[in-house]
Amino acid sequence: LVSSFSRIFSTHSKIEMSNLEEAKKLAAYAAIDNHVQSGNVVGIGSGSTVVYAVERLAQRVQTEKLKISCVPTSFQARQLIIKHNLKLSDLDITPSLNVCIDGADEVDSNLNLIKGGGGCLLQEKIVASCAKQLIIIADFTKNSCKLGDQYKKGIPIEVVPTAYVPIKRKLESRFTGEIDLRMAINKAGPVVTDNGNFILDWKNFDQTLNWENVNQQLISIPGVLCTGLFVNMAKKAYYGMADGLVKVQE
Ligand code: 5RP
């Protein structure tokens, strides 16, 4: 699977947006059809691929009279659930989920993930940890051999705002690479997450690190709330392919 992707990646810049959108939709529809049944509590991830997952859920509620409750992982996910008239729940009401469907920024050959490109990592990790299965949906550009091969924006780390400078210094002294405070697109200030926190993006990291150990080291620093490293969490990944097929990694 990995080698068949390398040719596609080398021409990534030439990939048409419409192909990527079609690939996202293929993955999302396949995952919803294979993993969601009536009576389920479903975690709704964040990002552009999840839009198609919610669209498919809404279709199935209409046509099959599927009965589901949805737990959002972000303000965006909550808005999507409301817009499609799906039943909105939360972790107070439904703390155990059957499945969580979410996107990813990169998936390695062991199903370890980088998430949080959209800044929703903390709630995504909490909701995924409450689900029996985390199912990833993505276009074909997200599949990778090693973390950092494809995704160059770094590993997101959500931090308490007052602690971002000491955390940045600690990370710079312990690891190779660069640590950048994520700024708003207009550079007027830092990105503030749904939880009121800042994000540090760790770029150009050593790709041979043990991600489980690294994640433990990072979350042991006071003020670090969550990392975008999702290690041993995903059960399967669905990739929409350029040729219109769906590939499954498990
Ligand atoms: C947001 C996320 C998203 O799931 C990730 O960025 C993938 O998004 P997209 O489906 O738009 O590629 O982790 O925090």
From TrEMBL:
Record bears the keyword Endoplasmic reticulum: no
One Pfam short name: Rib_5-P_isom_A
Gene Ontology annotations of biological process type: pentose-phosphate shunt
Catalytic activity, as annotated: aldehydo-D-ribose 5-phosphate = D-ribulose 5-phosphate
Any GO MF annotation of the entry: ribose-5-phosphate isomerase activity
Keyword Isomerase: yes
Keywords associated with the record: Isomerase
Family: Belongs to the ribose 5-phosphate isomerase family.
PANTHER family for this protein: RIBOSE-5-PHOSPHATE ISOMERASE
Official protein name in the record: ribose-5-phosphate isomerase
Organism: Hypothenemus hampei (Coffee berry borer)
